[in-house]
Amino acid sequence: MSRGDMAKPLLGHGSREGDCSPPPPAGRTVGVLGSGDFARSLAVRLVSSGFRVVVGSRNPKRKASLFPAAAEVTFQAEAVKKADVIFVAIFREHYSTLCDLADVLVGKILVDVSNNTEINHHKESNAEYLASLFPACTVVKAFNVVSAWTLQSGARDGNKQVLICSNNQEAKRTIAEIAQIMGFTPVDMGCMSSACEIENIPLRLLPAWKIPIFLALGLFLCFFTYNLIRQVIHPYIREQKNKLYKIPIEVVNTTLPCVSYVMLSLVYLPGVLAACSQLYYGTKYRRFPDWLDQWLQHRKQIGLLSFFCAALHAVYSLCLPMRRSHRYLLIETAVKQAVEKKMTIWVEEEVWRMEIYISVGIIALGLLSLLAITSLPSIANSLNWREFSFIQSSLGFIALVISTLHTLTYGWSRAFDENQYKFYLPPTYTLTLLVPCTVIIAKVIFSLPCIQHRLLRIRRGWEKGRYVKFVLPSATGEFSSGETSSNV
Ligand code: NAP
After folding, report:
1. Pick the residue with more confidence: 471 or 3?
2. Annotated region Disordered: where (predicted)?
3. Mutate-to-test residue for ligand 1 from 90, 92, 93, 198, highest number of ligand atoms within 8 A of CB
4. Domain interval for residue 52
């Protein structure tokens, strides 16, 4: 399926298949029960989308001024009589108060927009509960994942998807059409049993971010402890020097790039492992283990956290000269130099190291920013598949290589200096190099023509142990064809 196909709403329009323009509202009257935040935003949006809106309130006189002039605000029973589709914009706890309207509600479509305050709060979903109270109505669960703010500010500024479920296909189609006219993308979530899942969605706190955040925190904790031992505890134990002042900025600032760099390599490591698995088994149709699947799915979040840590590292680094401790040490060095009557402390090698170190660091941060920006859905949607994969895969790998140069210029020859092995612990940067260098070496090996060719064939459907007629693009970009067999 192409990216274009995937962007299309799941619900079709029957006769309007292929027609991009939204279907005309046909002057449909839509009812809204409730006069709260959601009801008001919904009414504004429905009116601006060309619908006639009738709002049902327990106190229409008091609430009328809160709604657009085009919307009619009346008593609940009156509103229900005038519309076939009724949005129930009140809380679940108050559904039973609508039972007086049961007679006038017969045969109507009720749209349940409600959310809960806790995940799986009730045994049955709110929509199922509403359906049980009004068996003569058709209940559709929809619009609960859209906030009142999104409704009012327009679909451009918020989540565009409206998840819909119902046991009645016709009613579901009607609500999908209304959602589409309002500028949203309806997503068919199946029958009413999905309502519980849909109601839990707005309550989940960053579900896709849990693992990456724990990973980042875990790495931060490990590197922070390691740096603390080297930079604070070691001088205290060995020389009785109090370096606690280094904790808030220096130790944090040496930890952040370690986390960022390792996280960046962890974005590309699962791809390497997946390629190894495909090469080993000679097929792309074998399922990856669950942990690898999960890891592959979290690459975007891991990459964004890597960028976040790199950005913090840049800000911390810029602030280093502002510290009192830095100024005191600078003055102390100047005084020492004067006492020793030294005219210059210029070390050419150090000057070059620093210039290169900062320059590659800035380039790496620039590339990481580009990767982060293009991973945002609004930007990613404007790129074709080739552009997206070039930025995320090729430029991402270049960012990893440049970050490695940044780390190497930082470390320079320190790995060979025995004074750097505090408590026999190697400098932190040597540890951070392990995973990224493994990824870089693996990627270089995969780019060798013999391996690249085999991997490409596997990814185009070739399988070890199967005899298939095969067409492959050659290394020069032309297509070569031939008979291949598993034993090749
Ligand atoms: P709200 O501001 O508190 O409004 C609730 C409305 O319910 C009241 O204005 C009231 O209107 C009506 N109501 C009817 N019977 C009631 C009774 N017995 N007691 C109290 N009120 C009664 O709440 P809201 O934020 O608009 O939310 C309404 C529904 O939309 C909820 O189910 C919520 O989960 C859902 N929702 C809200 C948002 C959001 O961003 N706010 C987003 C998604 C879903 P009258 O006094 O005019 O009858």
Report:
1. 471
2. 1-27
3. 90
4. 29-203
